[in-house]
Amino acid sequence: MSEHRGYEGDSLEFLKANQISVGDSVKILADITYSGIIMPRYEHSDDKHIVLKLKNGYNIGLEIAKIEKIEKNQSTKKIIEKDEKIEKVAGLPKILLLSTGGTIASKIDYRTGAVTPVLTAEELNSSVPELAKIANIDAQVLFSEYSENIMPEHWLQIAEKINEYSKSDYTGIIIAHGTDTMHYTSSFLSFALAGFPIPIVLVGSQRSSDRASSDAALNLISATKFITESKTKGVYIVMHQDENDETIACHLGTRVRKNHTSKRGAFQTIGDVPAFIIVEDQIQKNITEDFFKVNEFQPKIYLDTKVALVKYHPGYDPRLLDKIIEMGFRGIIFEGTGLGHVGKTMYESVKKANEKGIFLGMTSQCIDGRVRMTVYESGRDLLDLGIVPLENMIPEVALVKAMWALGNSQNRDEVKKIMLENIASELSN
pLDDT of 385-423, one tens digit each? Predict the structure, then answer.
């Protein structure tokens, strides 16, 4: 294993020239004096910076061109972090943190450069010490998966675990989750656990914890503050509002999607402002209605994955839709154009699907606005062919809801009723 893992070019030569390696405790003179541990970098990092882990647990990037002097601390032995035992603080609220993977609840092993999941409350406290001042955290690892590998069976596992704590003394539950598919998971939990008595918050990070611009710690701190101070129920996603560290957004779990690949403010509420905003430790409430539209918690942790999401486009081959029908799918969610349309070339296949008893729902490719299939003749034709307009439901949310609805009913009319019922704020005003 290289003693300069992740460093190359100018940064590598800088470390070698000063006889510094990853894991060394150093003092650096730049604009100010810094002390900390040299951290590894990823293979594709630039060669103009080194990463330093400060004593407070945060990582910073230092431009080598601005470093006047670097030297090892008196002890040349590489420092290995030890998890400090933490005492529960009487009177603080209790929060359960469930880790599913991603970087938000992970830490760097500087000896290997690997990102590893937080396994204990002690490790979590070591990574983000501010949490211990807000709440008593119990941490569990459910599994460790990149979010693109989280499948519907993982949704079931998460929901079943959360359901175990419906009558607990926890103030809320945090789910550490990768960002790419976070809104799919939040949608399923919103339906399967409708009416859950304490808030469920999914939180992730866009920047890994070894980067100076990491949003991991602040997102997690804000999620904890939100749970302890908001006095609300529901399923939320808590992430940076934009690129700065001043504003954190709390999005409804059924009205949010990831709209940027890499920016820290990637998540946006569709069609409205975020439900809550955290600014300078103050929580601003923007919603006026309850997240859940049901009064009683009655978990329904079921699903049927035989649902297809079909994004219509000019030139779409209807034989693809025929194949979906042949494969025995029970539901099809169309992501149509404009007010909710697909081309005439699709009509015969749509008719066939309807005759087979397949639930057919229509959403729009447009980012905002509602499906209105009575405005144009083509929309009315599709209504006659059995397609159900799903108002302003986000396509991905409609897909998840259809899986859940079909998991709870074998009757298409009942499924239609469920799909049009506003259960967890998936339909906005």
Answer: 999 999 999 999 999 999 999 999 999 999 999 999 999
Is 103 a catalytic site residue?
Answer: yes
19 backbone φψ class: left, alpha, beta (φ>0; ψ -120 to 50) = left
Contact 174, 24 (CB under 8 A): no
Q: Which of 171, 38, 49, 25 is nearest to 113 (CA)?
A: 38
46 backbone φψ class: left, alpha, beta (φ>0; ψ -120 to 50):
beta
Indicate which residue of 53, 107, 225, 258 is catalytic. 258
Q: Across-strand partners of 249? A: 239, 277
Taken in order 400, 403, 409, 413, the sign of the CA dihedral is: positive
Structural domains of the chain in order of their starting residue, each with its CATH number: 9-72 (2.30.30.520), 94-285 (3.40.50.1170), 307-420 (3.40.50.40)
Distance CA 384, CA 379 (A): 9
Q: Is 368 considered catalytic here?
A: no
- The answer to whether residue 258 is catalytic is yes
